[in-house]
Amino acid sequence: MKVLITGVTGFAGSHLAEHWLKNGAEVHGTIRWRSDMRNIEGILAEDCLHNCDIRDAFSVAKTIGEVKPDIIHHLAAQSFVLESWRAPAETLATNIVGTLNILEAARQHPCVVHIAGSSEEYGNAGVEQIDEDTPLEPISPYGVSKVAADMLGWQYAKSYKMPVVITRAFNHTGPRRGEVFVTSSFAKQIAEIAAGKRDPVISHGNLNAIRDWTDVRDIVRGYAYAVSAIRNNDKSSPQRFVLCSGVGRSVKSLLDNLVGISGQDIVTEQDPDRMRPSDIMSLVGNNKRAALELGWEPKIPWETTLTDLYNYWTERV
Predict the structure, then answer these.
(1) What is the pLDDT of residue 10?
(2) How far apart are alpha carbons 72 and 29 in whole angstroms?
(3) Contact present, 281 and 128 (Cβ < 8 Å)
(4) How many other C-beta atoms are found inside a 10 Å radius of the C-beta of residue 179?
């Protein structure tokens, strides 16, 4: 089985590549000339990496035509919510046009297409636990872009009978998470404090927000389960799955957990630059459909996830 992962050098992409390699697949990935290759060092060989700008239809068609994958995991995106406020046009172009180009190319080279959506599509849903049928009400440019990508996948599946699966993963973290994201921002700052490289003060944004975090290694397993299910059952109608832990945790509790792991004595201060123009106060999911239809549920304990994340940053600072 041949798997193509767009955005393979990213956080989830690199873990997904590892998952498929361990399960005997031939894995290829897309990169750009400025891609940070550290996440996939020692994971993918150079001849399995393909220069491709997902915003360029010709580049995408050429790559998919050469690789001829059985499965495409489309993960490449502008994925930092705060950055989507600063660069909305770039976010929309990358995430919407990029998805369109993937689907158009896959229409010419039949394969299973997985579109990685996001819990940000739901916005302030106003329900305790969000599932696949909860109305979409995005409140950030990033959320809007992911709704559009989601709907494109649905439309192509319906119009062209393409096997498309859409996942809406809630927050995920673990080793290799980019430092702009809250879990890694905290872990890196604490590791620097422990190493004596900064004062014992943590800068933060909104500590009251509640999120549903899952280990990235569990999330990518869910991605693989989702495409395997639609491939094995030869389904030609779109499928959607929420991937999450079902447990809400405040950002403050996350920070407290990491401080506890480090054993450091730390004070905190709010940084206005880390605050969003509008924020979602609570995002907690319901993974019952994934459990029932895919046999998927998170396995890695939260404490293990945070310890691995902290150790990752300790090694790097």
Answers:
(1) 94
(2) 10
(3) no
(4) 13
Residue 270's domain spans which residues?
A: 175-211+247-281+300-316
On whether the CB atoms of residues 204 and 2 are closer than 8 A, the answer is: no
Given a cut of 50, the residues of the chain with pLDDT beneath it are none
Q: Which residue has the tokens 């990685």?
A: 116
Closest CA to 99 of 33, 160, 150: 150
200: tokens are 């014992």
Count other Cβ atoms within 10 Å, centred on residue 162.
20
pLDDT digits (tens, 9 = 90+) for 206-252: 888 899 999 999 999 999 999 998 876 655 567 999 999 999 999 99
Instruction: State whether 24 and 106 are in the same domain.
Output: yes
- In a domain, residue 290? The reply is no
| Cβ atoms of 85 and 143 closer than 8 Å | no
Contacts (Cβ under 8 Å, ≥6 apart) of 155? none
Q: Are 78 and 55 contacting, i.e. CB atoms less than 8 angstroms apart?
A: no
- Asked if 177 and 126 touch (Cβ cutoff 8 Å), the reply is no
Q: Does residue 224 sit in the same domain as residue 253?
A: no
Residue 62 lies in a domain: yes
Length of the chain equals 317
185 and 161 part of one domain: no
The per-residue pLDDT for 303 is 97
Side-chain half-sphere CA neighbours of 178 within 13 A: 15
Which distant-in-sequence residues (6+ apart) come within 8 Å of 262 by Cβ?
190, 191, 193, 194, 310
Residues 231 and 306 in one domain: no
Residue 125 in tokens: 């849903």
Tokens (6 digits) for 31:
């990169």
Task: Please tell me the distance from the alpha carbon of residue 79 to that of residue 27, in angstroms, as a whole number.
Answer: 23
